[in-house]
Amino acid sequence: MRIAAILTPMSDHNLRLARQVGVTDVVATYPGTNLDELLRLRDRIASFDLKLSVIERLLPHDQLVHNRSGRDEQLDAIKNLIHNMGHAGVAVLCYNWMPADDWCRTDTDVLERGGARVTAFDIDAMTNKAEFTPTVTSAADLWHNLEAFLREVIPVAEEAGVTLALHPDDPPMSPLGGQPQIMVSSEALERAANLVKSPANGICFCQGTLSSAGEHIPTAIHRLGPYIRFVHFRNVVGTVPRFRESFQDNGQIDMFAAMQAYKEIGFDGPIRPDHVPTLDGETNENPGYETLGRLYAVGYMWGLIQAAGIR
């Protein structure tokens, strides 16, 4: 098991901090399709004694999800990215099949312990957002489009030595604003991993998402163990249609039991603290992705890893 981090921004300062607290792997957002740029990013990260291991977030995929005009161009971009990742030695591509393109919250300024700020979701607040206009694609079509996507990209990933890791929909509920969602449970993730049977077709196990769906996390880890390629170590309070984020040590998930479950399934991939509180002195320009809470979470994770006897 390797502790990874997504850094916002990926400054020299944050790279140094990450290495100082024991992070070994870095997660980067979509770098585009230029191989030279990816290699420069990899080498810059390596200069801090860190390894670029995962690409996630901001992938061009909305037309693929809905099978609209522009689908083929997005498919080509992702195939090109996978080829480049193979050349650069970047092992995991984390993607999602969220019809709204990314995770959704209705509040980014809810108070947690000591006045730290976290994100939250409340369906009533979302219903009142006049700007939300859903693009309705049926659940059956979302499944069909996902299978078609996987059948085209999995062979490319196998050749490149890259593994795909599918993130669940966040919030995990269907419909969301009138639009069906399909990646809302362990059962759905397992089904997706079996649409095209391949070691390259895996999942990102996001603890916070599945807990906010009402699932027992250690049980879900054991169920999905054969498919887990990447972990988001996150905690929440509440379940859909209303929940909020928390410190990794202050939510409803038994995080030590989760860490023990990862040991029991033999997980040895990258695991990163996901959404974290914004702490005193931070601007909250990137809710869930500020730095201080991430450093705290890494220390907490190291404690759990050692307590679980993983290293």
Brief write-up:
This protein is 39% helix and 19% strand. With 311 residues, the chain is of the alpha/beta class.
Structure in words:
The mean pLDDT is 96. It contains eleven helices and twelve strands. The protein is an alpha/beta fold and 311 residues long. 39% of the residues lie in helices and 19% in strands. The strands form two sheets. An eight-stranded parallel barrel has the order 1-2-3-4-7-8-9-12, surrounded by four helices. A four-stranded antiparallel β-sheet has the order 5-6-11-10. The chain is globular and about 50 Å long. 45% of the residues are buried. It starts with a strand and ends with a helix. It has one domain (2-307): TIM Barrel. The longest helix is centred in the middle third of the chain and has 22 residues, at 139-160.
